[in-house]
Amino acid sequence: MNILQINSSARSQGSYSTRLAGVVAERLVDQHPQAKITLRDLGRNPHPMLDEQTLGALFTPAEQRTPEQAARVALDDALISEVQAADVLVIGVPMYNFSIPTLLKNWIDAIARVGVTFRYTENGPEGLLKGKKAYVVQASGGVHSHTPTDTITPYLKTVLAFLGIVDVEFVYAEGLSMGPDAEQNGLDAAYQQIEQAISA
């Protein structure tokens, strides 16, 4: 089993989503001792955003790209290769202002490439990253799961399914900024959800 752990917190220390994503990856290794973990920490190594220059590079035939364009596309290619090689994705996602971090959005924009990770057919779009499982660990200061203020779950479900990843488990660590008791309750609930998700 190849596990790709993606941390998207801007924090280098003290991130709940990073800590809990690590717990998920460790529990998977406990069940599959031969598993290999590849860590992509977007906070420590931010991926560049999708801008006009990047679009120009992507839409230029490979043999016609400048060295700068080729280098930019190669950055996205590396992320795509990691996802293609993974059997399981573990994604740590803090909620920032009711949405995902820009760091994670840049990663999504990099791996969503027509003809490579999805394609359009006469029957509509088809995801090409099939047969993978994803665990998404969401951490938030408030309580949002299963309410209209949780925009992250439906968005990531949609994006991952668009790319072909439909087996997705969500873990929620909530109320982390609502005082010590709420924080501990939120973490305890998240650990319980992790055990349930891994054993499912």
Automatic annotation (TrEMBL):
Reaction(s) catalysed (UniProt annotation): 2 a quinone + NADH + H(+) = 2 a 1,4-benzosemiquinone + NAD(+); N,N-dimethyl-1,4-phenylenediamine + anthranilate + 2 NAD(+) = 2-(4-dimethylaminophenyl)diazenylbenzoate + 2 NADH + 2 H(+)
Cofactor: FMN
Top-level division of the source organism's lineage: Bacteria
Coiled-coil blocks: none
Enzyme Commission numbers on file: 1.6.5.-, 1.7.1.17
Annotated keywords: Flavoprotein, FMN, NAD, Oxidoreductase
Domain Flavodoxin-like fold residues, every copy: 1-196
Entry's cofactor comment: Binds 1 FMN per subunit.
Residues reported to bind FMN: S9, S15, Y16, S17, M95, Y96, N97, F98
GO MF annotation terms: electron transfer activity; FMN binding; oxidoreductase activity, acting on NAD(P)H as acceptor; oxidoreductase activity, acting on NAD(P)H, quinone or similar compound as acceptor
Uppermost EC category: oxidoreductase
Assigned protein family: Belongs to the azoreductase type 1 family.
Cited function: Also exhibits azoreductase activity. Catalyzes the reductive cleavage of the azo bond in aromatic azo compounds to the corresponding amines.
Subunit (UniProt): Homodimer.
Protein name, UniProt field: FMN dependent NADH:quinone oxidoreductase
Organism: Novimethylophilus kurashikiensis
